Amino acid sequence: MSYLKEKLSGILIRINFHEENANIRLASEADAIYRLSLIPDQFADKMNEFKDLILKTKKLYGDGVKIYKFTGMSNKKAVEYIKLLHAVYDSID
Asked: Does the pLDDT at position 82 exceed 70?
């Protein structure tokens, strides 16, 4: 689990210091979030839901294109996903 905590730490630092709104900050880390594994069971459903959204968005923009923002996602929803990432991080010993 320390591997997951290390990866999440980097993701959360970059999200927290990014200058844009929550949607764009979250999208800037979409590739790194998509590659996360070993998610604790209590967060697996929500994380899989978010990973599905990342995959759908990547297909929309095309292969090899970095996601700039999640089309149709409100900043409120983006903040919920950021809080989810923090909750996963905080749950790891």
From this structure: yes
